[in-house]
Design brief:
Helix content is 68%, strand content 0%. By secondary structure, it is an all-alpha fold.
Length: 191
């Protein structure tokens, strides 16, 4: 696991009781926890219970975490164990006549899945960070362009006081700024 200075900083500050650092950890790794829950087919209250128990365990064990940079792996493994416990508990509670009372983990290499979940969580965090660093005008334009369902250019132009013919070039400049962001530098392909 690479020694990510941002993760180390968050962990060290959270150990000192910095609420902003705690929020940063949750924002950065919540999607990792949810993706592990989805892999084990946990949804709704089961996934909420697992996530809550993982965050509680982190509060209880953060000081014992020897390598702060190991936090993502610790969260993934702790979530995996909590999912298995939730599935075992579900099997004990399901009536005998209920078909397929608790599907196990989705097939595939669990180590590979954890790695891809970690990478996906880090990419999502980096993209959110890079997007937040864009100028307001770019955030507004890109936000409107990528809504679902898509907004017509005439509506976007009217909302941003921008000629329809200028939307495409502005979009390109904003996306170029996003691609050049330092937050996304680690995920840029090597040339």
């Amino acid at each position: 696991m690479r020694d990510d200075p941002a993760v180390v900083d968050l962990v060290l500050r959270a150990r000192r009781g910095d609420a902003t650092a705690w929020h940063g950890i949750v924002e950065r790794y919540a999607s990792l926890i949810w993706s592990v829950c989805r892999r084990y087919r946990l949804t709704g209250s089961d996934a909420d219970d697992v996530a809550g128990s993982v965050w509680l365990r982190l509060v209880e064990h953060l000081d014992a975490l020897e390598e702060p940079a190991a936090l993502p792996g610790w969260l993934a493994r702790t979530t995996q164990r909590a999912c298995l416990q939730a599935l075992a508990a579900r099997k004990r509670q399901v009536p005998a006549g209920d078909p397929d009372p608790g599907a196990g983990p989705v097939s595939g290499s669990q180590a590979g899945d954890l790695d891809s979940d970690l990478l996906r969580a880090e990419r999502q965090h980096a993209l959110r960070t890079a997007f937040a660093q864009l100028p307001d005008r770019c955030r507004q334009l890109l936000g409107m362009l990528f809504t679902d369902p898509p907004l017509p250019y005439t509506q976007i132009g009217a909302a941003l006081d921008l000629p329809v013919g200028a939307i495409g070039p502005n979009r390109r400049r904003c996306l170029d700024r996003l691609r050049r962001s330092r937050a996304l530098a680690a995920f840029a392909p090597a040339h």
